[in-house]
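Checklist before submission:
- one chain only
- standard amino acids only
- sequence pasted in full

Submission:
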Amino acid sequence: MTTLVTNSKILRKQLRAFRNQLTPEQQSQHALDALAYLKVCLKHYENQVAPDPLPHPLNIALFLSQDGELKTQSAIEYLWQQTGHRVFLPTLETKPDLHMAFVEYHKTSQMENNRFGMPEPKTPLDRHFAGSHMDIVFMPLVGFDLQGNRLGMGGGYYDRTFAFKRLPQDSANPTLLIGWAHSCQQVPQLPNQPWDVPLDGIITEKGLEFFTAEQLE
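Returned file contents:
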């Protein structure tokens, strides 16, 4: 029988403890394994979602890992060095009409801490982009299930930013939301709230899995 996890506060604490118990060697190996599946995901996007050929470099959002999260640095380095795609990071210090924005991230980007002490590129507001401008977003999370549900830190920033994903899509190139996590963060089933925005897929050190029928075609 599937177990429905309902106490999010306790679950967050447990899952954060699981990922922080990973050794530095395990963290490094997981990051390399996940990078291989990121490459598969990019190829899938190019073949199945985007027009052929790509009309422009992809806007790809990641995040800077902390607190035992699956590391993103090798993925960022790969995108910088081996592809022509643009790399973005989320920013909370943004325009009043945006819950969260995305700003381009370069090796030379000047960084400043947001109100939670997390580094963000220091970028003029006119270069802040809404979530709908991203092609692929590799998202942080605390927990996930194989129904596409995601457990975040509880702030709701990603759900509000990508609320448009719950509406009928008339775009030929919708934003793809891919969770980025260790496999130890998987749980049997998470509760689903009306405002939750589901993941399109998940990458862990064990593989890439898509959740929606459209992405499996």
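Reviewer check: The chain has one domain: 27-211.
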